[in-house]
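Milestone 3.1: sequence recovery, worked example.
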């Protein structure tokens, strides 16, 4: 059985204010709120998932809402940023869109030959829009929308251990180097997700907080592939959790090299399973928390609009 990782599934980050987070990702970036729920192990923590119109795995970014936490600082073994792929030719659209929405920290760079627009969200999470190319988009509607997650950048002390995991177990291949940045990408046609390893000998100590990416989730094609991948990871000396049914996907987690928090998840049943057509109006609760709905909703006191 082919148990190669298909690419990125979703990322999880921290935000301190739900309404500000919601307005930025739905209005400035144009993503859809696909799920409003709670952390699987903590019903007092709100969790928001955003993605494309179909809630496709590979387009999803999620946020744990922790209002009392301080601003975070990325260090060794954590993601220092991510990028979203957008339509070719939409550079001027996105430049104008970010400025019209008052988004700060907009900067243009070139990375591995591709133009990128650097942006920061309201919590200071750094990300890029990439894939512009040279051909103007045909219109400023669907063709300019964020398409999917394109890459994750990890700040690490040594490339070797992480690259071995990516190549030997996840099936990524080395595709290039720029300075201390080493790029790996999926060998699966059509998946096209990338992992950039940024080798930094002296990284500051990681302090978890607002604006931090705290976990990266990769896509396993089937439940059978998920089981095989877990066995391979355990055989490599890591200590994966049991496979857990998280209602929208089945998954396991483990601490990778440099203590990188990694999850592997299935595509199915998907983020739309049992979810409201208007997720901003109702919190979708895991079945074990449903009897406590009134209590949980009262404690969260969240209305997104």
């Amino acid at each position: 059985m082919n148990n190669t990782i298909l690419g990125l599934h979703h990322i999880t980050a921290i935000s301190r204010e739900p309404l500000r987070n919601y307005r930025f990702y739905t209005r400035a970036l144009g993503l859809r709120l696909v799920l409003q729920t709670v952390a699987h192990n903590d019903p007092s923590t709100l969790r928001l998932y955003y993605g494309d119109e179909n809630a496709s795995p590979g387009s999803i970014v999620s946020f744990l809402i922790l209002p009392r936490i301080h601003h975070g600082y990325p260090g060794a073994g954590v993601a220092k940023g991510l990028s979203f792929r957008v339509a070719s030719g939409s550079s001027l659209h996105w430049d104008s869109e970010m400025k019209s929405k008052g988004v700060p920290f907009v900067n243009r760079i070139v990375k591995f030959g591709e133009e990128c627009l650097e942006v920061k969200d309201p919590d200071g999470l750094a990300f890029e829009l990439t894939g512009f190319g040279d051909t103007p988009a045909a219109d400023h509607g669907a063709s300019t929308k964020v398409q999917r997650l394109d890459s994750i950048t990890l700040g690490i002390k040594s490339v070797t251990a992480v690259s071995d995991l990516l190549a030997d177990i996840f099936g990524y291949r080395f595709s290039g180097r720029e300075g201390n940045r080493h790029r790996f990408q999926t060998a699966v046609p059509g998946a096209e997700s990338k992992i950039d390893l940024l080798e930094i000998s002296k990284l500051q100590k990681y302090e978890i907080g607002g604006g931090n990416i705290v976990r990266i989730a990769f896509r396993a094609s089937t439940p059978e592939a998920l089981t095989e991948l877990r066995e391979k990871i355990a055989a490599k000396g890591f200590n994966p959790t049991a496979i857990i049914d998280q209602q929208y996907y089945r998954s396991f987690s483990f601490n990778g090299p440099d203590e990188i928090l990694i999850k592997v998840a299935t595509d199915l049943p998907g983020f739309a399973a049992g979810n409201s057509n208007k997720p901003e109006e109702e919190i979708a609760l895991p079945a074990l928390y449903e009897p406590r709905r009134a209590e949980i909703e009262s404690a969260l006191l969240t209305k997104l609009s």
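The CA atoms of residues 56 and 270 lie 8 Å apart. Helices lie at 18-28, 91-100, 159-168, 223-235, 293-300.
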